[in-house]
Specification:
Elements lengths: L2 H31 L9 H8 L3 H8 L2 H20 L6 H25 L5 H20 L1 H4 L4 H14 L2 H10 L4 H20 L5
Helix pairs in contact: 1-2, 1-4, 2-3, 4-6, 5-9, 5-10, 6-8, 8-10, 9-10
């Protein structure tokens, strides 16, 4: 009977250690994903960064695809936190969106460029596409809510396009606009789209 608490403590300690190890591995992978092409990331480097063996990484995650799948929720939580903007103010929502792109935009662009060569990325990127559309429908719910279903879907499509990471890339990287000017331009595009779809149809 006296051994049972010791055994339970040992099991709890092992579980906590395993959880901490898994967290170090996913954080090491995510850190490399944020600055390298997917092709360039090796399990050797991830293991070295996390202070574990490659065998530990493989045993825990199976490989790079498993690591990629495990980082989806982490990245999703970070994005949701950066994009959160209470209220219906367009400029505030777009400001938070651009700030998010400033953090993760280059990473997303690299992953999109690699998608055709690495099918494993599609599931990851599809999650991002769904999440972005959900953000659009939530952020601009007040304006979209007054539209009929078919028109609401078309308006959401348009808003997804004008707030997409490629729109940010064109303004920030190709046109070399400042974050402030990028926010202003994207806000104007959103306002224009909302106004267009809110117009009464001509008879």
């Amino acid at each position: 009977m006296k051994l049972k608490p010791v055994r339970q403590y040992s099991q709890t300690a092992r579980a906590q250690s395993a959880e901490a190890t898994g967290k170090r591995i996913t954080e090491a992978f995510l850190a490399r994903l944020m600055k390298q092409w997917y092709d360039e990331i090796t399990l050797d480097r991830v293991a070295e960064d996390a202070g574990v063996t490659v065998q530990t990484v493989v045993r825990r995650f199976g490989g790079k695809e498993g690591l990629l799948a495990s980082t989806v929720k982490i990245i999703g939580t970070q994005i949701d936190s950066r994009r959160a903007a209470p209220g219906g103010d367009v400029s505030r929502h777009v400001s938070h969106l651009v700030e998010d792109y400033e953090q993760i935009g280059e990473t997303v662009l690299r992953l999109l460029a690699s998608e055709s060569r690495h099918p494993a990325l599609t599931e990851f990127l599809d999650y991002g596409r769904r999440s972005h559309r959900e953000w659009v429908t939530t952020a601009f719910a007040d304006a979209l809510g007054g539209l009929k279903a078919p028109q609401r879907e078309r308006a959401a499509d348009a808003l997804v396009v004008v707030t997409d990471v490629y729109a940010w890339k064109i303004l920030r990287r190709d046109r070399q606009l400042s974050p402030t000017d990028t926010k202003a331009t994207m806000s104007r595009m959103v306002v224009a789209m909302l106004a267009e779809f809110s117009k009464p149809k001509s008879k």
